[in-house]
Amino acid sequence: MFKEFKEFALKGNVLDLAVAVVMGAAFNKIVTALVSYIIMPLIGLIFGTVDFAKSWSFMGIKYGMFVQSIIDFIIIAFALFIFVKIANTLMKKEEEEEEIEENTVLLTEIRDLLREKN
């Protein structure tokens, strides 16, 4: 049972997922700091309040914090979209290169077979 767990835990996909989770958490902290300390104060200046997120509330409901969370989400979603788009482009190029190599090998084999036949 320990051997099976070790094989599972050390597979590439599990390690890749663990790295992705840690990187995602770190990226989330960066985006939250960006929104909290740079973007929201600028929005606050536009609307005339120093701390937009904390000062915008109605009957105890802090909808300013909700707006801040939405901005966090939009920035994270956009960054992930760009990252996935770049990763897909790079993977597509690698697949095309592999396909070209496979085609070259097949064409070489066909050529050699035709030479042998003649």
Automatic annotation (TrEMBL):
- Where are the membrane-spanning stretches? 34-53, 65-84
Cite the entry's keywords alphabetically: Cell membrane, Coiled coil, Ion channel, Ion transport, Membrane, Transmembrane, Transmembrane helix, Transport
Spell out the coiled coil positions from the record: 83-113
Q: Pfam families attached here?
A: MscL
Cross-referenced InterPro entries: Mechanosensitive_channel_CS (IPR019823), MS_channel (IPR001185), MSC/AndL (IPR037673), MscL_channel (IPR036019)
Instruction: Enumerate the Gene3D superfamilies for this protein.
Output: Large-conductance mechanosensitive channel, MscL, domain 1
Q: How does it sit in the membrane?
A: Multi-pass membrane protein
Read off the SUPFAM superfamilies from this record: Gated mechanosensitive channel
One cellular component term (GO) for this entry is: plasma membrane
Example GO molecular function term? Answer: mechanosensitive monoatomic ion channel activity
> Which compartments does it reside in?
Cell membrane
Q: So what family is this one in?
A: Belongs to the MscL family.
Function as written in the Swiss-Prot or TrEMBL entry? Channel that opens in response to stretch forces in the membrane lipid bilayer. May participate in the regulation of osmotic pressure changes within the cell.
- Assembly information from the UniProt record: Homopentamer.
Q: What protein is this chain from?
A: Large-conductance mechanosensitive channel
Per the UniProt record, the source organism is Staphylococcus caeli
Chain's gene name: mscL
